[in-house]
Each structure stands twice: as structure tokens, then as C-alpha cells.
């Protein structure tokens, strides 16, 4: 099976030894996105603003792969404070419709650059 790199200049450039996404067959594996503004590469401030930025960054990479949020089958959410879980659900509702993807929400001690939230996922393209 061949694999190809997916990238978008509308999402932050990779800040390490990884690709924004990899497509293998009709499956796309999205790398974790933190709330960096792709133009400035600076972290946006405020939890809701960070969550929105992460979804916008994921959206850019998903669209570069030829997909949409409807194609996401698995979403992993990493939070430095699980008290923000309800806000994540609220913001997620702006981007997803039923049937929702499978999801995990994981509390972690810290995230890159002091981010409060990070997400990665998997999508399957028709």
C-alpha cells in the first residue's frame, strides 16, 4: 500500500519530525494539532479560543486531504484540565453532526508550548 503526505499552509507547519497527516489507502491519519495560529505560529489565548483554533487547524488538513469533518471516524482529545470537557463538547458541536465520530478525551499533565488542548484523529475517505 502506498502512502502520501498531506499538508496545508492553512494549518501550522510541523514543529518536529512529523507530517500534518499521512494518507494510506483511503484512510488519513491526522497528527496532533495544538492551537497555533498558522500565520504567526503563536499560541492563541483562552480555552475556548484554543479549542476553536485546534478544530480550524484540523479542518485545514482534513480539507487538504479531500475530506470534511463528516469523514472523521476517530477523534482523540488531550486536555490539561478535564474541567474543560463540557466546553470541548460545546465547541465540537459547531463542527460535527451526527453520527459523531468515536472519541476519547484524555487528561494529560502538559502539552507542547503550554497548550491547554490538542487533538488528533483518523478519517476515511470514500
UniProtKB/TrEMBL annotation:
Domain of life, per lineage: Bacteria
Listed name of the protein: RidA family protein
Any one GO MF annotation of this record: deaminase activity
GO cellular component entries: cytosol
Family, as annotated: Belongs to the RutC family.
PANTHER family to which the protein is assigned, alphabetical: 2-IMINOBUTANOATE/2-IMINOPROPANOATE DEAMINASE RIDA, 2-IMINOBUTANOATE_2-IMINOPROPANOATE DEAMINASE
Amino acid at each position: 500500500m502506498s502512502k502520501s503526505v498531506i499538508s496545508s499552509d492553512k494549518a501550522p507547519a510541523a514543529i518536529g519530525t512529523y507530517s500534518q497527516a499521512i494518507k494510506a489507502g483511503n484512510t488519513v491519519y491526522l497528527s496532533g494539532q495544538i492551537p497555533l495560529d498558522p500565520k504567526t505560529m503563536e499560541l492563541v489565548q483562552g480555552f475556548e479560543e484554543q479549542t476553536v483554533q485546534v478544530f480550524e487547524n484540523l479542518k485545514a488538513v482534513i480539507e487538504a486531504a479531500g475530506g470534511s469533518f463528516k469523514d472523521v471516524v476517530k477523534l482523540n482529545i488531550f486536555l490539561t484540565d478535564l474541567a474543560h470537557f463540557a466546553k470541548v463538547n460545546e465547541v465540537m458541536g459547531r463542527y460535527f453532526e451526527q453520527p459523531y465520530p468515536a472519541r476519547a478525551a484524555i487528561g494529560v499533565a502538559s502539552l507542547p508550548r503550554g497548550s491547554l488542548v490538542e487533538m488528533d484523529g483518523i478519517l476515511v475517505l470514500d
